[in-house]
Amino acid sequence: MLKILKYSFFDLMRSRWSYVYFAFYLLLGVVLLFLNNDLSKAVITLMNIIIVLVPLIGTIFGVMYYYNSKEFTELLLAQPLKRSSIFLGQYLGVAISLSMSLILGLGIPFIAYGLFKSNAIWDFSLLLVTGTFLTLIFTALAFNIALNNENKIKGFGYAILLWLFLAIIYDGLFLMSLVLFEDYPLDKLSLIGSMLNPIDLSRTLILLKLDISALLGYTGAVFKKFFGTNFGFIISFIILTIWVIFPVLRIVLKSKKKDF
Amino acid sequence: MVSIENLHKKFNKNVVLSGVDLNISEGGIFAILGPNGSGKTTLIKSILGMVIPNKGTINVLGKNIKNSASYRHEIDYLPQIANFPNNLKVKELIKMIKDLRENTNEDQRLIELFTLQPFLDKKLGNLSGGTKQKVNLVLTFMFNSPLIILDEPTTGLDPISLIRLKDLIQAEKAKGKTILITSHIMSFVEEVSDEIVFLLEGQIYFRGSILELKNKTNQPDFEHAIASILT
Fold first, then answer.
1. What does the DSSP 8-state code read for residue B69?
2. Which residues face B199 on adjacent strands?
């Protein structure tokens, strides 16, 4: 698996898109710091972008890489390699190179600005950790979609739909259900609702860590009571890990049964 | 060497193989023939584990291949259409495959044999079909495995390379290896193969030597004998 990972990783590192992605984050970091002139504020703005953009890039890159490397995959399948190591190697190659672009692209300007001397370092690290989790989750979901669809156009379509659903439509439905059932106590429901969607979960996690939950009113207090504790924090990370493990497991199972 | 029992495979509703039984003994050249869509490639890919059969068992060198990958160390496979990653150089591809399987020095001899030296630093996406096929041949023949599977090996080759390929196949046969070939070029099949397996509608229609086929169909030459099966 490590050999496949190595080849996929270097293959991606040589491609233009990794640099574009890296350069984008570099620019974003520099511009935000320049405009805000304050680390904590830059972190908040950054969160809003990362939460939406990282899943989108993860999904698109995942699907694109799978379809583009079809020939490479077929070549590998005839070699004495396990299917699980071929696909896991490719998946990790994509996910790790994307995460690296994210971490380095944002890390460099923030460190240059004096991150280590500021107290925003924990918020910033949390941002990068959740960003990495989101990359791992959405790349895995993208691989699942691509494995299920031979047709590229369909694969891309479903991938975009998935992102659209989790990043935007889910929130809309969630909000509507809250309005619809406003006569009932909804603390628990909204807590569970935001835990089931990795994007919402990441957003809540960071918002509460940034200590701006006072803006969220009563529900914010309930959330703070849960997520603010170590227990809530650990549970959140367990759920994010589950969101990684299940799609990855499905990649392994699905690839075992597929014909090439 | 390879034994296949009651192999069934369908893609969605399209039945490709329906109950193939085949025993291939060690040593010799076997040609798998059949009209387009008769399941030749599916049969080969089943042996390679790339296609998962719906039913039936396949043994390679006495071991069931189900859920196994290591048996592919014993197989050299030449895929039908040389689909390689386009942004890789020829040199890098050869190095990568060696890294993934095992080290060998045989590639140098094969590169010379097919005069591929000028192309080593070119990207695979920029090569012509015939040159890609030569690279494909180098990748296949550089390892010393007892079973060689060639899917349409002659595609795109010029006459000189074709002669070299035939020599290469005969040399491997002389080492006691088992070689499976599919091809639509009947003269090539007639020249190299010891025995033929004819697939028709997902089953083995005929198996034996070319002479037996000619006698069975009462046709003087091989091409017409094949054609008479199909009409």
1. -
2. B204
Query: Which site among B10, B11, B65, B88 would you substitute to test the A interface, given the most A Cβ atoms closer than 10 Å to its Cβ?
Result: B88
- Per the CB < 8 A criterion, the answer to whether A138 and A163 are in contact is yes
The count of structural domains within chain B is 1
> Is B95 among the domain residues?
no
Is there a contact between A71 and B48 if contact means CB atoms under 8 Å apart?
no
Contact between residue A132 and residue A103 where contact means Cβ atoms under 8 Å apart: yes
Residue B177: inside a domain:
yes
Question: Are the beta carbons of B167 and B21 closer than 8 angstroms?
Answer: no
Residues B168 and B141 sit within 8 Å (Cβ to Cβ): yes
Span A213-230, pLDDT tens digits? 556 666 666 777 777 677
Mean pLDDT, chain A, whole residue set:
87
Query: What is the ipTM score, two decimals?
Result: 0.85
CB pairs under 8 A between A and B: 61
**CATH code for position B179:** 3.40.50.300
- Percent share of chain B, pLDDT over 70: 99
- Backbone φ, ψ for residue A192 (5° rounding): -65, -40
Residue B136 pLDDT exceeds 70: yes
Tens of pLDDT, residue by residue over A153-169, are: 999 999 999 999 999 89
